[in-house]
Every structure is written in structure tokens, then in C-alpha cells.
Amino acid sequence: MTKTEIQASLRDAVTAVKADNPMAASITNTVTIELVANAQLAVGGSAAMVYLPDEGEGMAAAGDAMYINMGTLLPVYEETLPRTVKALRDAGKPWVLDPVGIGLGALRLKLLQSFKDYKPAVIRGNASEIIALANLWELLEEPQTAGVRGVDATDSVDDAQEAAVALAQWTGGAVAVSGPIDLVTDGQQTARIRGGSKFLPLITGGGCSLGGVTAIYLTRSTPFIAALAGTIVYDLAGARAEKGAAGPASFQTRFIDELYRANAAEIAAYSFQLEDE
Amino acid sequence: MTKTEIQASLRDAVTAVKADNPMAASITNTVTIELVANAQLAVGGSAAMVYLPDEGEGMAAAGDAMYINMGTLLPVYEETLPRTVKALRDAGKPWVLDPVGIGLGALRLKLLQSFKDYKPAVIRGNASEIIALANLWELLEEPQTAGVRGVDATDSVDDAQEAAVALAQWTGGAVAVSGPIDLVTDGQQTARIRGGSKFLPLITGGGCSLGGVTAIYLTRSTPFIAALAGTIVYDLAGARAEKGAAGPASFQTRFIDELYRANAAEIAAYSFQLEDE
Amino acid sequence: MTKTEIQASLRDAVTAVKADNPMAASITNTVTIELVANAQLAVGGSAAMVYLPDEGEGMAAAGDAMYINMGTLLPVYEETLPRTVKALRDAGKPWVLDPVGIGLGALRLKLLQSFKDYKPAVIRGNASEIIALANLWELLEEPQTAGVRGVDATDSVDDAQEAAVALAQWTGGAVAVSGPIDLVTDGQQTARIRGGSKFLPLITGGGCSLGGVTAIYLTRSTPFIAALAGTIVYDLAGARAEKGAAGPASFQTRFIDELYRANAAEIAAYSFQLEDE
After folding, report:
1. Which residue segment(s) compose the domain that C7 sits in?
2. CB contact under 8 A, A105 and C30
3. Entry pTM
């Protein structure tokens, strides 16, 4: 796509979400679950969160996309997540995967391995998580060391470009890597976006809620456009919210307000760099 | 009751809550659980949340009322909720039911069906949830179509009046329906209340936290007065909070502040329309 | 330690946390889990929350300290908590225990009893919880009546001094009691600290998030210094945040901002009274 085509698609996606109030249900961690919902509502979507297997299947049927975040796994997820991703695949519904906590625990490992064949439309993570997932799915010519520490990254976004491209080429979807400069790729084209705020890493759930917002956009656009729209609105709202914020909590309030205020024209006009892979 | 009697009772209920700091424990969803607690604290109550069966029973014994919200069911609820509502009934303690997500999943269906005989003192929901519950409990002469979508309503409050009245007549308690114009009925009298804010549907947990606040008032008043007091304080605080809010998050902060600031005289003097059924 | 030595240690602890961004993982309740994480991030730490047994063990290995809060127990905690505290002890890692809800339910009772031999480095609670835990562990010469009501205290901090000292002498660590005047003791020396805000008891999670922040400081200091640093930064930030707050929600935003803004010199210079036991 040309940059102009991408910008037109961004505008269409954001406009459609604000017009239609589409629902993207989530199976997500309990730490940031409220922020995920509030961010989804702020950009014009509707939220619903579930834990039980048949409710995951029900939400796969009810919505146009879903968000699956691997933080704070509960025992029931051993059944819920396989049944939900199967229902999504069977129904041809796209979903966003956030591999939070990759490397911690046997259940997360087993589930993330199994997701390889279910090809999430968008994978969103920090640099270390994206490298770790590409390693786990054996998509790199040479395994790369990933510096996951708890839920934080110790790798740079550039370090994760090869992994992001490999993941996107495998899924046929898109990958978004969050960092000081964000990266979004569909395996053919890669966009780099600047913005955000020094305060974003100081609130819990910046990344998780971006995953949820991306799922909202995914109800009305392609994986690449959804991932790019989400990343842009976060960079735009983050930069605006930082002005006048006295600390991370006043930043968070302003940030959600700015997510709500950002319109389709502003998001489509936001600067990004594009390169071919 | 005459309007004057209702207003005197509203004033007494709000005054008693602020004086006594009564506890109403909750079994509620993980999305909005913090907001429920903070709203309960803001109006003068005390909050405690539990998941396990014997803890539900313990809270039924310890408090003067409880709040049960059906969002984000966990597997243990299959045991916790029946034991808790039985303990509440055996102890003669009133409780508030919020049938969030009605229509989704087998466990929620089974639990909601079983609650018919446990007669919650207050049922709170949006129009679609109230219609769906009256259908489920077979209280309508003719089944009515309910437009539940995830956790959102697609029906109007007037559409739900027949269902609300039927539910209240069955339980002998009260029903509160949230919408652009709110409705509270005890099956004999129905009040309509205006207010709130365009931002309330844009934050997650507006309805859930109203349920929790209603349970606090229920510790010190009848179901009808508790439901009316909760609805009024939400309409009053919502309208005040919207002024000067830049978006949904600054609205939410201001809204909790206004819940805290609203006093008994203001709540008792708030406008509502009353009609006999 | 002399007061001057304590102040130097406070300064070192706060400085090290801001420099190193240390992680303290938590197993904590779902009501205040987001606030715990955001408070930990605000003071310079890193947060990660888990529920599953092998993830608790993994976090015991990955971090320098942990936070265990007994609110909203889930069934899986019956396995997770014993395995996690064993892993912490085997690895010689310190942890903070917050005995929220003590007295409610069989699982909480069993777990809290078993923790006696695992000697948490810091125990943090309100007066009633501290008395109840000292009773449960049979550390008092004469059992003392504890007024736990749900999650609230009905005892004064002075009432809890004997229990706090007894607990600290048993564990060899420190105990922090939250109240109008806070108390921190290592069983040999006891500090009393004033400050905070009338709004702190009106937001849910003031105590829980203090426990999480204490665990962050515990990664870089002794139990007594960690407990004192946490208590001081809460008293300092609370007093500052109250100025200009319109209610509990605007207070909470300002409070997290002030946690972020408080520097090592201010925390070290904060007033406290010291006495020998």
C-alpha cells in the first residue's frame, strides 16, 4: 500500500469504529482489565470480559474480533483459551494476541505454543516479548536471546524487527512492537511511529490497553491498519496527555481523555515512516 | 407512599449511611470491582469483596446487605453463589442482583434461574437485562425480545417497564432500570429520574458501581428507597461531574468526588416523577 | 540504629530503588491490584502479578522480594501460596505479608497459620489485623480481642503495639501498622509517623498498595527500613495530595503523582518519633 492509501484506510477504520460502536470481547489479566475496557470505550468501541470456556466461545460468536492477553493466567484458562481460539478460527474471526509474561510458567508456555497454528491477526508486545514468541514458534533462522524480565522488556524495538517480520509473515497478519519508537509490520511493509510519553511505562496497562484498542479497530479494518491505528492513537494521545501532567496518575486520566478526543482526521494525518521489508 | 414521605425516607437513608459507615460485601466482576468499592466508600459505606463459598456465607452473616453481580463468572461461583444466596435468605438479609451478561453461558443461565426463588430485594440492570430476566423467570404474559449485546442494552427504559414491574411484584422488592431516563419501581409505584451524563456509558462500571451503592443504602432502608437513592445520587453526581470534564476519565474522577460530596438534603430534594402502576 | 543512621538508610533505599527499577512480584487481591502496581511503578519499582503455583515459584526466583496479600482468595491459592512462600524461604528472599480479611473463611485461616514458620520479613496491616495475627500465631501472653470488620479496623494503633512488637520479634523482621498515627517496629525500636490524609481510608487499596511499595523497598534495604520508607512516603504523599483535592478520586490521582514526585532527600528528612522497646 502507498502511504496515501494507508492514511485513507486509517481514516476509514477510525470513522467506522466511532460510528458503529463495535464490540471486541477480551480474555485478559486482572491487573489492567478496567483500563483495557475504558480505553476500548474511549475510542468508540464496546467491551466485554469473560473467563469461562463457553463464554469465550460465545464471545467469539458474538463479536467481530477478540483480544487475548496472557497475563495473570487462571487455571480455567487451560480450557478457555484453546476453545476460544478454536471458535475464533472456525468462525473466521480475527483476534489480537498479547504474549505478556512469556517465559513464565508451564501453562503459558503450552498455550502460546499451541497458538502458533491459530495465527492471531495481530500480535502486540514489547521487544522482548516479540523476540521470545518468534523463538518459541521457531520462526528465526537463529534463535535470538530475549530479555524478558517479569512483564518488562530489556531489548530495543530495532532488535525485534526481524522477529516481528517473521511472525507477521507466518500469521499473514500484523505485528506491533511497543517502545520508544514503535514498529508495526505486516511482513511486507514496516511503519515506525514516534510519540507517546515518558509516563506511559510508568502506568500499568499501557500495552494491554493498546492491545484491546487494536482489537476494536480490527473489527473494522485489516490487521496492519488496526495495529497502526492503535499505535498511532496511543502515540498521539500520549504526547498530548503528557503536557500539563503532574505525574503518572494525572497523565493516565488525561491520556484516556485524549484517546476519546482524537478524531479520524488527526489519526490519519499522524506522522510515520514506511519501509519495505 | 406520598412524594413527601419518599423524600423524608431518602434523607433518612443517606444520613444513616453517612453516620454508620455500613458494610455491604460484594461478589462482583473483576473489571469494575475497584470502582464498585470506591463508589461504596464515597457515599459513606464500607466494601469487602470475596470469591470463595464459605467467605460468601461469612459476608452474608457479617453485613446488613450484599451485592451480587454476574459479570466475569469464575468456576468457583457455581458453589459460591448458591451458598451465599441461601445464607442471605436464611438470615433474612436483603441483596442486590445485577444480571450482567444475561444470555451468555450455561453457568450464568443456571444461576440466574435458581435466583428466582431467592428473591433479591433489588434488581438493577439496563433495559435489555431487565427484560431478559423477566423472560427467564417467566413473569411476562408474553415473552418479550431482549436486545442484550455483550454487556450493553439495545432496548429503551420504557420498553422495560412492564418487565420491571413484573419482577418487583414477584420479589416484593424493587427494580431499577438504568438509561437516559432511569426508572425505579416497587411494583406499585414507579419513579422516573433524569440526570446523569453522556460520559457515564463511556466508563466501564457505571451500572455495576450503582448496584454496589444501592446495596449500601439497602443496609439502612427499604428496597424501593435504596434503589431510588442510588439512582438519584448517580444522576445528581453525573450531571455535576460532566461540567468541566474533558473526557471520560476526568469525568470519572469528578464523578466519584461528587458522589462523596452529595449530601442527604440534596439527594432528597432531587426531582423525580412518580406514578402508580 | 540512631535516628541519623536510619535517615541515611532511608535515603539509600529510596535512591537505589529509583536507580535500579527493581521488581517485586505480587500475589494480591483483584480489588486493588491495579493500584498496587501503579504505586509500585510510581516509586520507581517494577510490578508483576501472578496466580498459578509455578508462576509464584517463578516470581520468587526472578525478583528480590515479593508481596503477598490475602484479599479475594481464589481456590488455586491453596496450592499457590504454600509453594510460593516455600520457594521464597528456600531462596532466602524476603517478602511482605498483608493479612487482609483475617478471620474470614477456612482457607485464609489455614494459610495464615502456616505462614508462621515462613517468617515474612515485613507484616503490614491495620491495628485489628495485626492483633488478630499475633493472636493466631499465639505470640501474646494473653489473647487480645481484635475488632476486624470485613477489611476495616476498629482498634487503635496503640492497641496493636504489643502485637506488632511480638510479631517482629518472632519473625526477626519488621511490622507496620497503619492508622491515624502509623507505627513501624522491628521489635527493638519503634517509630511513629504522622501524616497521610482523611481521604486515604476513603479509597480502596491504600493499605494494599503500601504493602506493594514496601516490597519494592525491601528489594534494596532491611525490613525495618523498607517498612519505614513505605510508611513515610505514604504519609508524605498523602498530606501533599490532600491539598486541593475535591474528593477521594481526585485525591487518589494526586496521591500517585506525589508518590512519583517524592525524592530520597524528602523521605529521609520526614519527621518521625523513635523509642526503644
Report:
1. 3-276
2. no
3. 0.97
